[in-house]
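Session log. Operator J.P. requested a structure for one protein chain; no other inputs attached. Running the standard single-chain path with token output.
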Amino acid sequence: MKVAMFISSKYGLQCYKAVEKMEGIEMVGILTTPLHFTLRYERNKTKEMQNAIYEDVVKESLEKKTQIYITDKANSEDSINMIQKWKPDLIIVSGWYHIISGKVLAIPEKGVIGLHASLLPRYRGGAPLAWQIIRGEKESGITLFYIGQGVDTGDIIGQKKVLIAKEDDIGTLYEKVGEAGIELLTEYVPQIANNCAPRNKQIDIDKYSVYPQRKESDGRIDWLLEPVDIYNFVRAQTRPYPGAFSTYKGVKVFIWKCKAAKTEGSHDIAGTIIDIWEKHPVISVGRQGGAVILMDYSLETDDESIEMKKGERLM
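Structure written below.
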């Protein structure tokens, strides 16, 4: 079976390597973005992005003698002409940020498939893992599905559940879900080649919301949230993501890790530093009293004299 892949993330490259070595697979082309490209995620809104695997993909294409096409316009006439020349039976999309047009979807006889980091139809849309952690979910997963014109509405090929442990953060959950996604590709791509893969329509799709992509500004912490909600908010956006943040005396503070404080409760204004515990600030949070301890944080300043002190407030 001839396969082309659209990839522009480290996970996309992992998927490529898993598929490329499968028996009976001929990798006919890789479509990837330039090193720097602009992502349009909402009407009239853009975000400057960097293709973290640009050099690795170029190297892979040279070593494997696989054709590579570099573009941030996958739906352009030139891109479509190139994909048509590859004559793929199947296109696999993983770690790809752009919408795929109907003209591209119509090229491969066996369709276009992709991975989505949720148990569809739950958490369709952007940043599914971050949203699931923020909302306190105990279970996540990944879905291999046929990509269509809707937002993650295509027929499901297979799914794998992944538990979200209390200590998981976006990095550890990404790894677990990613491994499950590789397992799905390994199981079902050969079945697609042999025309025996499952294909199930999504049920009750209208019952579930479509989640937006998250912007860096969405990471500001609301100190009126309860301790568990702030804990979830922080771990959903910690490294390697931009991080949850607040400000202290006009300086941006990134909070990478926190935990609920064992306290009888605080009635200070939310965001107030009520104590310093072994160099870790303890912050008053919630509407009924509560606190979190900042276990790992950094200030966006070169001024080493700025130090968080009891009685001051994060905004």
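Operator note: Residues 170-193 form the longest helix (24 residues).
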